Amino acid sequence: MTVTSTPRTGVTLRLLDKADKEIVKLDRAVLGAFYKFQHDFRRNPDAGGFRLKQLEGHDRLWSARVNREWRALMIRLDGDDWLLVSVKHRGHVHKNLDRFNYGINHITGAIEYVDLQVVEESLLRRGLTPPAAPALVSAPPSAPAPEPVGSQPPEEPLFGAYTDRQLADLGVTEPLIPIVRKLTTDDELLGLAEYAPRHTGEVLLRLRDGVPYEEVMEQVTAPVAVAEPERNLDADDWQAAVDRSQTVVITDDESLQSILEEGDFGRWKIFLHPTQEKLVRRRYSGPTRVGGGPGTGKTIVALHRVCHLVGQLPPGHTKPVLLTTFNRNLAADLRARLLSLGGPDLLARVDIAHVDQLATRIVSEADPGNAKRRVDDTSALREWRELLVETGETRWNAEFLSDEWNQVILGQAVTSRSDYFTARRAGRGRSVTRAERAGIWQLAERFTQRLETKGLETHRQVAERAARLEMARKSRIDRRAEERDERGGLHNLHFEAGSGAWLRYRYRHIVVDEAQDLSAAHWKMLRAMVPSEPDDIFLVGDTHQRIYDNQVTLGSLGVHIRGRSSRLTLSYRTTREILRDAIRVLGDADYDDLDGDTDTLAGYRSVLHGEEPSLRGARSWDEEMDLVVEQLRAWHDVPREAMAICVPTNDMVTQLADRLARSGITPSEITQDGPRGDQGVHIGTMYRFKGLEYRCLIIAGAAEGLVPRASVDAWEHTDPSRHRRELHRARSLLFVAATRARDALAITWHGEPSRFLAPLVPPR
């Protein structure tokens, strides 16, 4: 006779932040056993197969059998409410039980769990022998803890300027404070931060970055600290503590699978960092910008911001929130992520479109019969060259005129000769007299007529026209608002009915991703689409990643972010070894902050550790392709679709794809619509990699003459400003490519390595 356990109701299984990062590293077979364990445990934790037992010396920590070799460690919060904190091999569960520390942080009120042995092993690998640490306490210390006894380290402690009490008041996990006091190198600090509770890691990294104690208290601790009246926390009120903790209730197998198998995005859907959470939920008096290096979670913050804004909307069927970015690929990715984050009901209230698609929509409304053919900047430059040949004009070259037309005339939506005389030309380098402006304007008019005659238009022309149309619409809205105010707030019903619709702004809120690559015309269009009210425009971007020549000063375009800018500094994607070399590629060049000041990556760091990037040269492109094949085969334990190769030109994409196919490796080319197929190694030009990430990545063709291209140096003496901009752009492109790699990066070249690799490649 078989006896079956009756499923229990009311069983809650939660997952603590960082536990998922340990679980996802398990072998596939163990991970499969864990999925079955959590499913069955939620049904009936009393089933005999779990061998559920309380660990000796611990009042709340229990172990449960996952399979023959592995055990789940869980904190019993109350009755059938369980918090899963770790999955360990059975041989590591019952040894040195004092190493398991857990409790309620007396500053944040959140539940924290630390395995001191894991921390110690991490630091021992870095040459530091940590002192014994006390158990985690749930109340503030009555007096500062004594300094550890022993010989002083050869180097100055990183946090010697702070007392134990000061660190505890910032919310640093107290069992870790004796270890913190012994840290002497950044490598040791990063090793600690990798396994410490997230708040502790953030506090220590900010202090190490030189942020004053008071600012760390205000910016990092205060937003997550419990109110003063609640500071005397009940050490046994774990139910209240769990509400203040970064946990997720596992409700079904699919929700857990999404957390564990969607990579960084899967966990960011749930475990948003408190610093990021603060940026998402804050009410802003006007436009705001969130900056930060690659992998710091800017896009995640933007997506959660959209969710927050939609959550504040009254019920309805309109789409008052716009989510936009600079190309079709990224817009499609944002749509997929937002759907995963909030579901179809959220998506139904958000308009998702890239800026050129948005501009086309506006222009098509005004001119539905427009049949002009769109051409890109390269085709437009060809038309400029032909115009100069036909007119015999020799004072200006085609590149200068094309840039002037794109950046100044179209970029600033200049519509008349007199407006062009007063237009700002910041960053254009070469100054022009009033007489020269008159000549340039005449050529620009002839060029516009030339495109008109041929039935052509550029995307920049469409953006400029959309900006003018939206600015005109905004003027009408403002004028009617003034008239309404004069009537005491009453609508002119006859006039509104006659217009066929109530004239209103298109959106209440706009969220912009990759803001650094939008043009001035795009910003004028967006500014006119939303009223100047609190929470109107939320933008995220990093000018170190600008890959198009669109330098703007937002304040001059009506997007005033001064005093409302924040910066994220912690990379959750790229290892510190890759990050270090990527930053070296940027050199000492200055980058703007989108508002006329300089931006910086100071304090930008990662807590992830990995292997050193590989740097290899070849005598020819043919030999270099052999190196690429060799490297891909060396990564034999990584799925092909988790690898990618980026190169400088489309021809190199074609040649490399052919070489891979002949070597038995399936290639998948990245187009403007994304990779062609789900299988194989992704290959594309560097421009195609914006917004993507891979476990292993190769940058091939990083040779002088290709990165940057040889033609760039032709401007060094004829147009120094453009020369600087093009070098900036090439550096940024290489920086973006390098930071797409999560775990491993290889850079190859043939002939001479790119000048940008000089800090990485020893001179011959």
Sheet-strand content, in percent, reads 15-25%
Give the CA-CA distance, first to last residue. 79 Å
- How many DSSP E strands? 27
Q: What is the overall pLDDT average?
A: 87
Strand order of the largest sheet: 21-27-26-22-25-23-24
Provide the structure class. alpha/beta
Profile the largest sheet. 7 strands, mixed
Helix share, percent: 40-55%
> What Rg do the Cα atoms give?
29 Å
Q: Poorly predicted ranges (pLDDT <50, ≥5 residues)? A: 1-6, 132-153, 496-501
Shape descriptor: globular
How would you explain this protein's 3D organization?
With 764 residues, this protein is an alpha/beta fold. It is built from 27 helices and 27 strands. The strands form seven sheets. A seven-stranded mixed beta sheet has the order 21-27-26-22-25-23-24, with helices on both faces. The protein is globular and about 90 Å long. The N and C termini lie far apart (79 Å).
Short description:
This protein is an alpha/beta fold.
Record keyword descriptors for this entry.
alpha/beta, 27 helices, single chain, 7-stranded mixed sheet, 6-stranded mixed sheet, 764 residues, 40% helix
Please describe the topology of this protein:
Layout: E1 12-16, H1 19-23, H2 28-43, E2 53-54, E3 61-65, E4 70-78, E5 81-89, E6 100-104, E7 111-115, H3 116-124, H4 164-169, H5 177-180, H6 186-195, H7 198-208, H8 213-221, H9 238-243, E8 247-249, H10 253-261, H11 263-268, H12 274-281, E9 288-292, H13 298-311, E10 321-324, H14 328-347, E11 350-352, H15 355-366, E12 373-375, H16 377-391, H17 398-410, H18 417-422, H19 434-454, E13 456-458, H20 459-486, H21 493-499, E14 509-512, H22 520-529, E15 537-540, E16 565-568, E17 570-571, H23 576-586, E18 591-592, E19 598-599, E20 605-606, E21 614-618, H24 621-634, E22 643-647, H25 650-662, E23 667-671, E24 674-675, E25 681-685, E26 694-699, H26 715-718, H27 720-738, E27 741-750
Parallel strand pairs: 1-5, 9-15, 9-16, 10-11, 10-14, 12-13, 14-15, 17-20, 21-27, 22-25, 22-26, 23-25, 26-27
Antiparallel strand pairs: 1-8, 2-3, 3-4, 4-5, 6-7, 18-19, 23-24
